[in-house]
């Protein structure tokens, strides 16, 4: 028997805020030419984002899978949330890049062909050519993976009965590691191992799996029984698996982390996610107003932080973002502040009204009674 979840899980906003801040810190202070390498942990924030997305979107679809307006309402709401700010930002940034290339080519690399950004297909080009292209729009590959996932997941949840859903999820999660191994054996560029949907959907589907377990009566009670021991073991086993793979690769010159590392990262992330929302003292820390606020504005902040840093460093220092000098650090801090301001304004006056407008479309009453009510075994 499955329970339908109502109400907002505030801790997830805090987790999203943590993921967003980790990406910002990495891009601004860790992954620039003279950055601090111990701050180059943006990959962890991206992986956490994927697990969160799978948990949240999977949960919405699971709760409404029998609705008469299942597809229509889901895609209308997603469109209002994602497309307007994305297309406005992409259009303005492409104009800025074209201007920069014509007048200050030292500031920025050329962008990929514009149609790739407008069709959410830049991850395919990155995988094929192995080129990072302009740093101002590089983070948008993750949005491609998410959008492509939004086309796939509603069909999976709608078409597959609940008694078979967990088995299919496990199969697809396993297929991600197999897909990465095949790419590696074929000599594909490293970018392909990280930017294509099949090579990343283990993280997303682990989030969906967590949403299933969270909704299944009996299973959730077991997970949080005995002082949440199973969830803590999940976090620990994921972390130990990651460390073991790093050591194996270091000593035997392998690429095992590239093949199965994402799975262990995902296990660690979803176990920590479930631990956070289970009522622990640790989870209460993610109700912090600051973290939750960053979680609220994270989408706009994720889109604008690189272009703003590039423009400020270009106009003020006639160069690319870096932290080698005091002036560069000060400009980077200014870019961080300005990015937060722009994202806050975008949320208050642009994104939030559109989200409210999208929620005028509501999920209709259930139209499929029996098939979807089978317990998830």
Summarize the structure.
The chain is mostly helical and 377 residues long.
Give a structural overview.
By secondary structure, this protein is mostly helical. The protein has 15 helices and no strands. Helix 2 packs across helix 9 (197-215) and helix 3 packs parallel to helix 14. Mean pLDDT is 91; it is low at 370-377.
Helix content: over 70%
Q: Any low-confidence stretches, pLDDT <50, length ≥5? A: 370-377
Average pLDDT, rounded to a whole number, is: 91
Strand content: under 5%
Question: How are the secondary structure elements laid out?
Answer:
Layout: H1 10-30, H2 42-63, H3 70-103, H4 114-118, H5 122-129, H6 141-159, H7 162-185, H8 192-195, H9 197-215, H10 219-252, H11 256-276, H12 281-284, H13 289-296, H14 298-317, H15 326-358
Helix pairs in contact: 1-2, 1-13, 1-14, 2-6, 2-9, 2-11, 3-14, 3-15, 6-9, 7-9, 7-11, 9-11, 10-11, 14-15
Looking at this protein, list some descriptive labels.
377 residues, mainly alpha, globular, disordered C terminus
């Amino acid at each position: 028997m499955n329970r339908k979840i109502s109400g907002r899980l505030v801790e997830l906003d805090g987790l999203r805020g943590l993921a967003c801040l980790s990406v910002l810190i990495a891009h601004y202070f860790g992954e620039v030419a003279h950055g601090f390498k111990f701050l180059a942990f943006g990959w962890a924030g991206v992986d956490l984002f994927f697990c969160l997305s799978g948990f949240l979107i999977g949960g919405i679809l699971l709760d409404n899978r029998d609705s008469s307006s299942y597809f229509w309402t889901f895609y209308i709401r997603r469109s209002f949330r994602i497309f307007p700010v994305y297309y406005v930002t992409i259009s303005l940034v492409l104009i800025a890049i074209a201007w920069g290339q014509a007048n200050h080519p030292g500031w920025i690399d050329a962008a990929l062909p514009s149609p790739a950004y407008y069709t959410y297909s830049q991850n395919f080009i990155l995988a094929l050519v192995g080129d990072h292209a302009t740093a101002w729009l590089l983070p948008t590959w993750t949005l491609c993976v998410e959008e492509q996932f939004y086309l796939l997941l509603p069909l999976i949840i709608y078409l597959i009965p609940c008694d078979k859903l967990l088995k299919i999820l496990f199969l697809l999660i396993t297929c991600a590691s197999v897909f990465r191994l095949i790419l590696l054996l074929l000599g594909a560029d490293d970018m392909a191992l990280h930017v294509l949907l099949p090579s990343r959907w283990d993280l997303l589907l682990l989030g969906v799996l967590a949403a299933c377990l969270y909704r299944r009566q009996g299973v959730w009670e077991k997970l949080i029984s005995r002082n949440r021991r199973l969830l803590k073991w999940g976090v620990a086993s994921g972390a130990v698996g990651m460390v073991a793979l790093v050591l194996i690769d270091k000593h035997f010159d392998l690429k095992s982390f590239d093949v199965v590392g994402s799975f262990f990262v995902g296990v660690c992330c979803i176990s920590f996610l479930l631990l956070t929302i289970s009522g622990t003292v640790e989870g209460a820390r993610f109700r912090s107003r600051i973290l939750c606020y960053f979680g609220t504005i994270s989408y706009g902040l994720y889109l604008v932080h690189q272009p703003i840093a590039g423009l400020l460093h270009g106009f003020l220092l006639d160069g690319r973002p870096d932290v080698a000098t005091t002036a560069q650090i000060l400009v980077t801090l200014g870019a961080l502040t300005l990015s937060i301001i722009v994202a806050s304004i975008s949320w208050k006056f642009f994104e939030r009204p559109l989200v409210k407008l999208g929620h005028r479309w509501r999920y209709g009453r259930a139209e499929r009674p029996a098939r979807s009510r089978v317990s998830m075994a």
